[in-house]
Amino acid sequence: MPASTYDPDYDFKFEDSLAHNIYPAEKMQKAREADHTSLAAQVCTPELWDKLKDRKSTGPAGWTMARAINTGVMHPDSFVGCHAGDRESYDDFSEFFYPVIEKYHKGFSMEKGSDLQGTPSERMDPGRISVDLSESARSKIISTRIRVARNLSMFPLNPGGSKESREEIADLMEKVYATIPDDSDLKGTFYRHTAMSDTERQKLIDDHILFRGGDRMQAASGYHEHWPHGRGVYLSGDTQFVNWVNEGDHLRIISMEQGGDVKAVFSRLSRAAAMIENGVRAMTGQEDVFMMHPKFGAVTCCPSNIGTGMRGSVHILVPKLIEAIGFEEIDKLCRARNGQARGSSGEHSEVIDRIDVSNWRRIGLPEYELVEDMINCANYLAEREDAL
Ligand code: ADP
Ligand code: MG
Questions:
Q1: Is the CB of residue 362 below 6 angstroms from any atom belonging to ligand 1?
Q2: CB-ligand 1 contact for 165 (6 Å cutoff)
Q3: pLDDT at position 2
Q4: pLDDT class for 121, splitting at 50, 70, 90?
Q5: Separation of 15 CA from ligand 1 center, angstroms?
Q6: Is the peptide bond before 228 cis (omega within 30 degrees of 0)?
Q7: What would the pLDDT profile of 195-213 be if each residue is shown by its tens digit?
Q8: Ligand 2 centre from 333 Cα, in Å?
Q9: Beta-strand runs (E) in 188-336
Q10: What pTM did the predictor assign?
Q11: What is the per-residue DSSP string for 142-178?
Q12: How far apart are CA 332 and CA 182, in angstroms?
């Protein structure tokens, strides 16, 4: 079978001055004049750059500031604009990353850290969700998906990784998937991009099961390097449990189904995430499976996902509301309720008759509370739709 191909335009490229470890003064100035200044440009002043430019992270990536801010410099329309290359990056460049984290996760303090009780699996408890979808919201919901981003502690993060590290991760995961019992609803098949045709890949993307790749911002962060090696997707027989392997983060553990049974989706996620964690632990003999940071929890490539790494979303049909006030306005309404709106084909995608509504916060709050944010937001949008 032909391997899935890739547009070389999306290979990693260094911005010219960063490639020479020179502060991109003009571009940073432009970024500061934009409507939204990326968090990277807000924090990385010339003074801070001078202080950090020759530092290397102490982890396996040997990460640098030039690599960390490449996305924000190449794409002044980035919201965050920076990435970590290994777990150590966050602390080794704390003068840069801590303010970025605090700017993105408003109200979160790196000094205090998050003080969550129990393990993520314990907090992914549907019994603790105290709100319900309204009848109206339920009738408008097409599908529900909740995912957590996770990285494996024995490897660098992918922007700081190699072809080999990506392949080793995929090989390890393939072995873990093989241990899932045949009679489990989570049992399925691992499909690798190196054995997938473009048509097969596109079909999975159209079915909302697979990541798209080919994103200019992700390319600038190094997500797409060495494509298609080590990339893949695990899919349970009923297609309700999905793992993305090496999209950006090592793993996206996903639970999804048609309709609005949020609690069932959450419950499957909890069970599946614990199974993956135990499976990797058994396979590697390593106690610390997922990369965790003592202050904020799950470590991810993009500072926006750290913490719980969780995004719960519903696709909700609100055609009249979209027509009446438009996507930007809907997003503002969601933001005011701790939610976020996206197009229904993923981040930065087009909006037609439905909206992807999700929790916007990811850190310092228990997972079940983030699900509540999403439910409250969906109920509100349904109410607004009904009023038109
Ligand atoms: P993530 O935060 O997981 O990276 P993206 O916005 O990049 O999410 O979307 C990833 C994929 O998941 C896209 O194909 C998107 O359509 C799909 N998706 C997200 N939420 C839902 C949902 N509630 N129902 C069906 N598909 C969804
Ligand atoms: Mg995404």
A1: no
A2: no
A3: 65
A4: confident
A5: 29
A6: yes
A7: 999 999 999 999 999 998 8
A8: 21
A9: 188-192, 232-236, 241-245, 251-258, 292-293, 297-298, 310-317
A10: 0.95
A11: EEEEEEEEE-BTTS--GGG--HHHHHHHHHHHHHHHH
A12: 46
